[in-house]
Structures are given as structure tokens and as C-alpha cells.
# Entry
Amino acid sequence: MAGHGTDEHPHGADRLCEAGDRVYSRAVRRGRLPRRDAGPVPCLLELALLHPDPDDMDWLVPTPPQEVMTRLLRGMYDEISASQSRVGSAVEAFEWYAGLGHRVPASPPAAEGPAIRVLDGLARIQAAMDEATQACTTEVLTVQPGGIRREAELSEGLHRAMALRGRGVRMRDLYTHVARHGHGLFTYLELMGDAVEARTLDEVIDRLILFDRTVAFVPANAERTMALELRHPALVEYLGTVFDRLWRLAIPLTAPLPDTGIEGISHREQSIAALLAEGHQDAVIAERLGISVRTCRAHIARLSETLGAVSRTQLGVRIAQAGLDGPRRSAQVSHALPDQGSGDVR
# Structure
């Protein structure tokens, strides 16, 4: 392999060189390939995309594409988490220096406070949400990812929601279709009357709570112990636009889900089929649709039976043949704010 070192292949697994793409694709199609065929592309061995066949060291077998995708996503998640941590530290430092600035004469701060504030800890998040709830006069927009809303979650902040209704505040909530199967949500909506309107999608974005289109709360970590309070007009307007566009795509909770047009295929199974066609693993599909992995696999089994597929590979082919791999009426997206009820206004 002389003359074919890493200097000639300066890339990672997320962007293969042309030769590496060609050889790895061939290995995936055939299941393995002779070691000599990988001579011109040492990058595949260095990136662990190919490894020796334990039964015959003269052959190489490919790392499954699903495992490669998981590895890449894990790396990206770690980078994002590290970036969020750095942002949090920088904002906290900014707030500390801003506090020092109060010791000298300065112009009064803007009434709305910092444009971006990191809320660390559930108590601090709750206090900021309560403050925003008390100041709200017009509308509250929320996006609630996940599946069925537990009654305890919905009733926890019911007094705040009732107070908002008493002031004439209108509320619009977006949920996943799975939320339709929870009795607690319908009980909550019945109590709130026409003050709340709810719609659903296959998937929604990360948790979002927007008060009067002036302050928004979004997740800051996966553990649901940090959030960002956003008051920058451009950021808040952008999030409001995202919500409005998702709202137009969503289906009113009072309306039935559209028929798939394929006998024996439910709306949820159609959504699962589209995500399978994109190459997602069961756990990822379950998280995005707000269902358990066990439920997801049960739907996949029924989908396979309906389409007459006896393997995952054949299921992928049948999904394409049935046209279930096309675009769906949904938004693509994952993360959540600390789970304290529907927008912590309930």
C-alpha cells in the first residue's frame, strides 16, 4: 500500500473519496471483497469501514451502513452537546460581567432583559416560565414532542392555563399523532374549551413554548435540566414562523387522520415505512414518532406481513414498490425542554 497513505485520503467517514465510495459500495453489495481490492483505498481500513474476515484473512467484510450512521450521529451529538455547554458557559460569564457593570453608572438595561439567557436547573426554568406566563396577554404557542401525554403532566400546570384563559389568552398546541390515543389530552382540552386549539403531525420539532411572540423557551440539553430563554426579536420571529408553517401542515385534533389509500396500511405504518426507507433504526423511528420501540417493531412486523416481506431487505424493496418511501405530510425533527406539562403553562 505504499504511496497510498492518509495524505492522499484526507477525509472522514462522512465524506468518502470517490475511490473509497466505489469500493465500500461494492463490499456492501457483495458482503465481502478480496483484501487486494482495498489496496488503493487504505482510508476504508483506517476508518474501520472494512475489517478482516475472521474466517479468511485474505478477505475484508464491510461494517454495516447502519452502524456507520449510528457512529456518525453519535459523533455529531457529542459535538453539539459540547457546543451547547460552551454556549452556556459563555452566556453565564456574560451575565457575570454584566453584573459587575452595574457598579458603575450605565444606561438602564432593556426592559426585556438579555436576548439569550441560559436557565440551568428545573427551579430556574419553572420560575422563568411562571414569569412569562404572568406577563402573557395575547397567545401561547407550544410544540409538544413525544407520545401520549400523561394526565399528571397535563394537570400539573392546569391552574396556570386556567388563569391564561381567564385573561382571554388564546393557546395553540402541536402534538404528534400518537397523542390522539391519550385520554388525558382530550380531558384537558374539554376543560379549556375554545381557549385551546390542538393539531397533530407525524413528527414535530423539539419542544417550543412561545409567549406573545416576544419570549420563547427551547431545550438546551438532552437531560431536560437546561433551557434557553430567547428574547432576541429575530430569533423569536423565526421560531414563530416555524410554528405557523407547521400549524398549516398539521391536522386538527377533531379531524380524522387521512387514509393511506393502501389496503391494510395504517397512517402510522406509512410513517414508519417512510423512515425505514430513509435507513433509520427502530429506536430512532420510535423516538421520532413518539412511540415505544416495542410498539414500533410490532408495526414493522405487521407492515412486513401486509407487504409480503420476509426480511428487512425485502421490506425495503416492497416499501419502494408500494410508494411508501415518498414524502410524508410531516415535519422532520428531536430534543425536548424539561418535561413539566404542556409548555409549563398547564
